[in-house]
Amino acid sequence: MSGSTRGPNDPRRRERILDAALDVVAEHGAIKVTYRRIAEAAGVPLGSLTYYFDDMEHLLTAAFGRLADSVSSRYGALLEAAGTPQEAEAAVVEIICGKVWGTDRDLLLSYELYAFATRHPELREVMRSWMRASRTSLARHFDPLTARALDALVEGLSIHNSVDAEPADRADVAAIVHAIASRPGR
User: Fold this and answer.
1) Which residues are CB-contacts of 88 (< 8 A; sequence separation ≥ 6)?
2) From CA 159, how far away is CA 147, in angstroms rounded?
3) Distance CA 109, CA 120 (A)
4) Mean pLDDT of the chain
5) Of 25, 72, 77, 135, whose CB count within 10 A is highest?
6) Of 75, 72, 66, 52, nearest in space to 23 by CA
7) Three-point CA angle 151, 29, 67, nearest 5°
């Protein structure tokens, strides 16, 4: 997108910068993100980045927040559509096995967010907000402890399945979700 610099009244410039920041993170890793790479990917002047964001941490916090909101929205929509406990369990299976993450890129970006938030405490609130949104969506159908367990399962199995030579298939995931959702004492 280099060379497509827009005028000063570009209403989407901030969003293009955030999208470009995520592209750069996906390509190079959060640790290798630079203003120059983001500006080039967004097709904006370098000074635009500091106009919209005080520093790189603010920029990455906003970009990762945008990612979290996008994934949380897809996640929440599936659970909101569920009308029965069985449909809620099926929604959790779909979140794990389907394309709720959007793309492999989004899953890779979530890895980057976890790693970066570990070293940059100000980004932990993005993670906490994402977890709250996930658990709130799950709590429509499950008690708080089950919602917490299913949230961890979603994260863990999604990560494992993305790198495992023999990822858990949909039937196995459904059995695991059902075992958690129907645990004694629920």
Assistant:
1) 79, 82, 140, 141, 142, 181
2) 18
3) 16
4) 90
5) 25
6) 66
7) 40
Residue with tokens 């997108």: 1
DSSP 69-107: HHHHHHHHHHHHH--SHHHHHHHHHHHHHSSTT-SHHHH
Number of neighbouring beta carbons within 10 Å of residue 173: 22
Q: Which amino acid is at 48?
A: S
pLDDT digits (tens, 9 = 90+) for 68-122: 999 899 999 999 999 999 999 999 999 999 877 767 888 899 989 989 888 888 8
Contact present, 74 and 100 (Cβ < 8 Å): yes
What's the pLDDT score for residue 55? 93
- Closest by Cα among 11, 35, 114, 135 to 67: 114
Residue 60 · residue 115 · CB < 8 Å: no
54 contacts: CB under 8 Å, gap ≥ 6: none
Note whether 101 and 110 are within 8 A (CB).
yes
CB 97 within 8 A of CB 136: no
| Residue 26 confidence (pLDDT) | 96
Give Cα separations from 170 to 2, 71, 93, 150, 181 (angstroms). 42, 20, 7, 15, 16
Both tokens of 131, joined, read 């977890």
